[in-house]
Each structure stands twice: as structure tokens, then as C-alpha cells.
Design goal:
By secondary structure, the chain is mostly helical. It is built from 15 helices and no strands. The longest helix is centred in the last third of the chain and has 17 residues, at 179-195.
Length: 234
């Protein structure tokens, strides 16, 4: 990339609102990783707005999102409660498996190293590295870096290469950003992806990273814009 990770971090100033990030909202509200884990599961492959609706349904029904409370909910009712988030079967199963794992308490998990926590969470069926890393970074300050579609798109455009989850993680973690800065960087990038570096018709003219970006240098944004106009005409 033309600009290093620290430079990209410094240039991005917009961090979004807490309500725009369900994991941030859940961890800050409950000061507990377990509700945050459930919220992050609900956010898989959907918007945070849809996930928040499903999460709110669970809170309204249960009052407290504890493992034992979730396990008392019949599976069909659980699916109905989380319906706004989609992927009902896989998400309901991941929630149930998570609740079973922590039914007898969470102290054993909290006392683990970040590496062991990550391994434990990824071992739950339906929970991948992104979900695990969001919880670990948001609630435990672990030095991990989760990437979503926005972050992958931004890094791929900046570098001119197709960047994978692992490649982005290595690139960011090789920088000198602290865990607190990593969390802020995660939010800054997603905010940029939502508001400026969109998949179609990105607003490159107002992007603070334009001179760092191989995609911008290539003139590809003009091609995307013309495709967008053709699509709208069709």
C-alpha cells in the first residue's frame, strides 16, 4: 500500500455512532462478553440494524441474555425472535451451542489467554474467526483484527490486490497500533466503507485516502460510476 497502516489510521477521523455497531453497543451496555457474542452471531451476513432488531427481541423476551435463559426458550420461538437477522437455523444453533458451553459459568473462559479464547470460540459450530475476533477485540482488548466486507473492499482497493481476512489481519497487526487503536481502526474503516468507499459508485473525490489508493489511481471509480448509471437505466 502507498500509505502505511498508521498513516491510514491517522487520516480516518469518522468512527460512527455506537448504535451503528451492535457489538460495541452490547459490550458497553452489558459489560459482558456473552451478550456481545450473541449480538455478533446475529450480525452475521446482515446489517447491524437488522441484528439489533433481533437482539432487542431477545432482550424483550428474556430480560437478561444469560446462557440459562436462552436455553429455556423453545427452538421455534428462538428462531421467530431472531427472524429479522435471517439465517435462522444456523444462528439459532450457534446461540444454543454457545449457551450450552457457558451454562455453568464463564469464569474459566475469562481467565484464558486471548489465543485460547479465540480457539474456544471458533470451536463453536456457527462461529467463525470474524465473530470470535469481534468479541475478543471489543470486550477483551485482545490484539486481533476482524475484517468485514467493507474492510476487505477498502484494503483491496488501497493495495490493488485481492486481500483476504488473514492477509489484512497480518498487515494490520504488524503495525504499531495498540489494542485500543485497533478497535478504533476497525470502526473507522467500517464507517468509511459505509459512507464513502461503497461497493458501487464510491465517493473517491471526498475520500481522505484517495492519494493512497491504487483503485483511485487506476481510474476504476469512473468505470464503476458508468456501470451504476447503466444499471439504473436498465
Amino acid at each position: 500500500m502507498k500509505c502505511g497502516v498508521r498513516e491510514v489510521f491517522k487520516r480516518l477521523t469518522e468512527t460512527g455512532k455506537k448504535e451503528d455497531f451492535i457489538a460495541w453497543l452490547a459490550c458497553d451496555t452489558y459489560q459482558d462478553f456473552f451478550p456481545t457474542l450473541i449480538a455478533t452471531v446475529l450480525s452475521q451476513n446482515t446489517s447491524d440494524k437488522a441484528a439489533l432488531k433481533a437482539f432487542s427481541n431477545l432482550v424483550s423476551r428474556l430480560g437478561s441474555l444469560t446462557p440459562s435463559a436462552l436455553l429455556r426458550v423453545p427452538i421455534d420461538e428462538l428462531k421467530e425472535l431472531i427472524r429479522p437477522s435471517g439465517l435462522l437455523n444456523s444462528k439459532a444453533n450457534a446461540i444454543i451451542e454457545s449457551a450450552k458451553l457457558f451454562e455453568d459459568g464463564t469464569d474459566w473462559f475469562v481467565s484464558m489467554s486471548c489465543e485460547d479464547k479465540r480457539r474456544t470460540l471458533i470451536g463453536i459450530k456457527g462461529i467463525g474467526e470474524k465473530t470470535a475476533d469481534v468479541v475478543l477485540l471489543t470486550c477483551f482488548g485482545c490484539r486481533v483484527f476482524p475484517s468485514d466486507t467493507h474492510i476487505k473492499r477498502i484494503f483491496s482497493r488501497l493495495s490493488g490486490l485481492k486481500m483476504t481476512y488473514d492477509t489484512i489481519s497480518r498487515t494490520v497487526l504488524d503495525s504499531d497500533l495498540s489494542a485500543d487503536e485497533l478497535l478504533l481502526f476497525h470502526r473507522k474503516l467500517i464507517t468509511l466503507g459505509r459512507a464513502v468507499c461503497s461497493s458501487r459508485n464510491p465517493k473517491c473525490s471526498v475520500c481522505p485516502l484517495a492519494d493512497c489508493c491504487e483503485y483511485y489511481a487506476s481510474g476504476s471509480q469512473g468505470v464503476d460510476a458508468s456501470r451504476g448509471r447503466r444499471s439504473q437505466a436498465d
